[in-house]
């Protein structure tokens, strides 16, 4: 879209910006343009009228004019067009051209006096020898008006064309025209000596050279407000010119101008468009370029007329060398990486809270914003989402970040519209419990222990509210420390897969024979799940394996295991222990608050084992986390109305990397063969997981 806008702009001679505000701009030449200093409350007068580059002296033949290209090309308008250009888009005003001064005509040749009759006729005078016109000398461009070398940190255009404002490459070899011609002299223009860079034409370049000569020949050369950058004939004036020169002029990321100074709607400031984006100026903020993802996001919010207002800085490169941001009058836009769409955040309490927890800096709580700050449906609050969490703000409760497992549960409950309401505190450290935190909400709290156990309490607004589908579905993340059963090998490690050489293939053949016998053995002893998992292991895909609910329900009733002298618990005993803890806690909370509450408890991962053959041969030792949700009403001892739901979750890393000797007798040979199959590249470790069905109960306790 931006490239097409440039095509229309340069073809028609329009002063429409690449980043066009929603409201039409006033013509540039009918209003003052930006001053040379920043800020200057009173822009100077309109530049003086330009000489007509197409005027031809009467004593010389007129040069052949070149027909202007059609308006669909990507070139600025020709100074010598023989056909009128197409009318511009009504929303894109074209500046009224300045009056063009015609050069003075050459004087007539002197003729002999024929009024005397007494004198002999005078011989016809010999023709005067042809003389070359005097050399034209134009002062050079002062050093203070020559663009500076571009800075090392340049904006990086995204690969996505929808986010990039780049349409042309910078010109690192650009230099002002030496001794420019003030009129069109065929064969002697700079365009006759140098190639004209696209998208400009020879006519554009000649018009630019003539404009350069006029500006440099003015009496107040160093104080001149405006400047032309050959081959673009647009005059860039005032503070925007100064900024453009400071960035590097045509050698900068902006490349060449595609408009003169344009007055923004309402007269609040000015802009000049360039091939790769605009520079915006206001008296309060100065002149700053806005390009690529920043321009895209700023445009979504209405440019300078939107809530962000004018830019107050250029792009600011962050210490992480990945992200950038740009400040505006009422907020900022952050871009986390090259192809990021950018995110806008308002100045105010939400941004203040983000800054207080480290903003986007490496290792901070939240990281970069990944969406715009938005209002909430209640018309009161605001929120913003970041790489590692969110911040919610309410005028009564303030701004608070929510992250991790607490955010997972709160989001399942419906955020601020759910049973917990808005957060009313940060996630604060629990006194006397190092590593444990608690976050308070309008109607409850969520606690996270140092061992990753979670306890959530919500005050029921309606006693018949009941349970939610997510209440018992939560559990600690797989492989989350501490986890005695799986921490040594979790996450799944396949780094030694295929590290043992087998040049002849004999070892692999022998290994597969033993593996086939092991698989057959599981069938013989009635261990179908053990066989399925073993075959998945030798399938060598390494993909996760989900155990069915019915299988786990049959295993989770095991109330003991067959590992002598092992302190590991059985799944049934672990679940009953968690159930008792949840019911007791819910009764206490209901009595303390004097109203019905719902309490959710999940445990940290705990090691478990069973005694059924398929159970033992499938998993051995594994990890379980029972989650219970209890609704309790206040009452006297032994007279509390109670409802509970419980679901037991498990996971394990299926591998054969445990110490030798654990399995005993002939099973050890099968274990060692399976381990060798992994090293030979025949089998792969994988994650196995699942959950039992939801168990329910109601009564009085």
Automatic annotation (TrEMBL):
Biased composition (Low complexity): 15-37, 45-84, 97-108
Keywords from the UniProt entry: Signal
Coiled coil: none
Biased composition (Pro residues): 85-96, 122-160
A family per Pfam: LGFP
Signal peptide range: 1-19
Xref: InterPro entries: LGFP (IPR013207)
Compositional bias ranges of the Basic and acidic residues kind: 168-178, 190-200
Top-level taxon of the source organism: Bacteria
Protein name per the record: Esterase
Lineage, uppermost ranks: Bacteria, Bacillati, Actinomycetota, Actinomycetes, Mycobacteriales
């Amino acid at each position: 879209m931006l490239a097409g806008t440039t095509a229309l702009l340069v073809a028609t001679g329009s002063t429409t910006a690449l980043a066009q505000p929603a409201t039409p701009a006033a013509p540039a030449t009918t209003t003052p343009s930006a001053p040379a200093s920043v800020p200057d409350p009173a822009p100077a007068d309109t530049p003086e009228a330009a000489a007509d580059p197409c005027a031809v002296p009467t004593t010389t033949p007129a040069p052949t004019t070149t027909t202007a290209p059609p308006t669909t090309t990507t070139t600025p308008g020709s100074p010598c067009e023989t056909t009128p250009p197409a009318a511009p888009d009504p929303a894109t005003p074209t500046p009224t051209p300045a009056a063009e001064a015609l050069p003075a005509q050459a004087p007539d040749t002197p003729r002999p006096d024929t009024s005397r009759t007494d004198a002999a006729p005078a011989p016809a005078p010999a023709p005067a020898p042809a003389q070359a016109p005097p050399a034209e000398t134009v002062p050079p461009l002062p050093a203070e008006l020559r663009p500076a070398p571009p800075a090392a940190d340049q904006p990086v255009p995204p690969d996505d064309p929808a986010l990039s404002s780049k349409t042309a490459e910078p010109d690192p070899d650009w230099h002002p025209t030496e001794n420019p011609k003030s009129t069109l002299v065929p064969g002697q223009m700079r365009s006759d000596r140098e190639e004209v860079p696209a998208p400009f034409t020879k006519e554009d370049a000649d018009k630019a050279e003539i404009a350069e000569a006029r500006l440099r020949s003015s009496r107040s050369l160093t104080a001149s407000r405006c400047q032309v950058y050959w081959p673009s004939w647009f005059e860039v004036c005032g503070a925007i010119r100064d900024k453009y020169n400071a960035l590097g002029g045509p050698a900068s990321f902006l490349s060449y101008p595609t408009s003169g100074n344009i007055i923004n709607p309402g007269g609040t400031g000015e802009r000049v468009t360039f091939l790769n984006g605009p520079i915006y100026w206001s008296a309060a903020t100065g002149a700053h370029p806005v390009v690529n993802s920043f321009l895209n996001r700023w445009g979504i919010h209405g440019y300078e007329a939107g809530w962000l207002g004018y830019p107050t800085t250029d792009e600011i490169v962050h210490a992480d060398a990945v992200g950038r941001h740009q400040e505006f009058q009422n907020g900022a836009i952050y871009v986390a990486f090259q192809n990021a769409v950018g995110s806008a955040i308002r100045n105010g309490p939400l941004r203040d809270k983000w800054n207080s927890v480290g903003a986007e800096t490496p290792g901070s709580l939240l990281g970069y914003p990944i969406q715009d700050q938005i209002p909430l449906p209640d018309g009161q609050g605001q929120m913003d989402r970041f790489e590692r969490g969110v911040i919610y703000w309410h005028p009564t409760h303030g701004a608070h970040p929510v992250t991790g497992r607490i955010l997972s549960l709160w989001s399942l409950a419906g955020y601020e519209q759910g049973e917990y309401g808005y957060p009313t505190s940060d996630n604060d450290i629990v006194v006397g419990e190092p590593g444990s935190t608690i976050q308070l909400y309008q109607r409850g709290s969520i606690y996270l222990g140092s061992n990753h156990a979670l306890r959530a309490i919500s005050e029921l607004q309606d006693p018949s509210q009941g349970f939610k589908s997510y209440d018992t579905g939560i559990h600690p993340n797989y492989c989350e420390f501490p986890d005695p059963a799986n921490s040594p090998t979790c996450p799944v490690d396949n780094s030694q897969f295929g590290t043992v050489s087998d040049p002849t293939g004999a070892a692999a053949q022998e290994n597969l024979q033993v593996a086939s016998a092991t698989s057959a053995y599981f069938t013989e002893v009635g261990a179908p799940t053990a066989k399925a998992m073993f075959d998945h292991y030798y399938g060598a895909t390494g993909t996760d394996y989900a155990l069915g609910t019915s299988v786990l329900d049959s295993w989770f009733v095991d109330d003991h295991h067959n590992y002598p002298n092992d302190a590991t618990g059985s799944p049934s005993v672990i679940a009953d222990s968690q159930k008792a803890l949840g019911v007791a806690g819910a009764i206490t909370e209901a009595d303390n608050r004097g109203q019905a509450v719902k309490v959710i408890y999940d445990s940290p991962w705990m090691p478990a084992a069973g005694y059924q053959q398929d159970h033992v041969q499938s998993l051995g030792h594994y990890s379980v986390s029972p989650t219970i949700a209890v609704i309790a009403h206040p009452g006297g001892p032994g007279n509390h109305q109670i409802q509970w739901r419980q679901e037991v979750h498990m996971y394990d890393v299926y591998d054969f990397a445990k110490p030798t000797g654990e399995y005993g007798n002939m099973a050890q040979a099968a274990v060692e063969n399976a381990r060798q199959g992994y090293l030979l590249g025949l089998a792969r470790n994988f994650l196995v997981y699942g959950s039992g069905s939801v168990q329910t109960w109601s009564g009085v306790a």
